[in-house]
């Protein structure tokens, strides 16, 4: 995915060089987190010079935001419509994310590093910078959901927020000490509990 707003210099690089820089960014940020990652480290991993990275992105923060937008964009374009079951859609979304991340070594760890960002300004920019693509992917994923299966006192918006809080909160707390498989297993357990709590009787 290519972004035209402010990244013209990066877009002019060869596809091979862009891929090397993206993979190096995922790997370095994912391994060390935002604050402890130096642009010189990413440059060395990508096989480019440090001035080249600043020529491409302008700053470390801009590169981090670019990689986040790139990740969300790649996941969004692969998202498919889900089923009538809200919780089945959650897992379709998870599987889409995992397939995408398998194509980009380091993307998984990079996205986990975002859950541990403790810079309030950066966290706010991350929330703002890709709302359009995330919303489009969510709309597609939930397009076929039968929301009548959810208890009326809960409703659609609360159900989506609750699942988001549980999943993102669990990942944020355990990303540093649990494997991807363990996180997925625990999340499925908690989401099954939520399903029984928010679906009307007979709809579970």
Structure notes:
The chain has 204 residues and is mostly helical. Helices cover 70% and strands 0% of the residues. It is built from 11 helices and no strands. The longest helix is centred in the C-terminal third of the chain and has 20 residues. It is elongated. The N and C termini lie far apart (39 Å). The relative contact order is 0.11. The model has no long low-confidence stretch (mean pLDDT 87).
The percent of residues in helical segments reads 55-70%
Distance between the termini: 39 Å
Q: What number is the mean pLDDT?
A: 87
Query: Order of helices and strands, N to C?
Result: HHHHHHHHHHH
Biggest beta sheet attributes: none
Task: Quickly give the structural class.
Answer: mainly alpha
State the helix count.
Answer: 11
Outline, from the CA principal axes? elongated
Low-confidence regions: none
Number of strands: 0
How large a portion of the residues is in β-strands, by DSSP E?
under 5%
Radius of gyration: 18 Å
């Amino acid at each position: 995915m290519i972004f035209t707003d402010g990244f013209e210099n990066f877009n002019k690089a060869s596809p091979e060089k862009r891929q090397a820089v993206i993979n190096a960014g995922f790997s370095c940020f994912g391994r060390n987190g935002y604050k402890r990652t130096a642009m010189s480290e990413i440059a060395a991993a990508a096989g480019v010079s440090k001035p080249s990275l600043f020529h491409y992105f302008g700053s470390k923060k801009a590169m981090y935001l670019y990689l986040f937008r790139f990740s969300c964009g790649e996941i969004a374009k692969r998202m498919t419509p889900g089923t009538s079951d809200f919780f089945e859609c959650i897992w379709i979304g998870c599987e889409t994310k995992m397939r995408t991340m398998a194509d980009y070594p380091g993307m998984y760890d990079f996205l986990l590093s975002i859950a541990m960002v403790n810079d309030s300004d950066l966290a706010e920019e991350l929330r703002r910078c890709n709302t359009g693509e995330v919303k489009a992917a969510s709309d597609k994923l939930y397009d076929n959901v039968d929301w009548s299966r959810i208890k009326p006192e809960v409703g659609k918006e609360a159900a989506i927020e609750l699942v988001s809080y549980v999943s993102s909160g669990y990942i944020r707390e355990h990303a540093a000490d649990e494997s991807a498989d363990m996180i997925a297993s625990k999340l499925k357990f908690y989401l099954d509990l939520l399903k029984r709590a928010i679906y009307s009787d007979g709809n579970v």
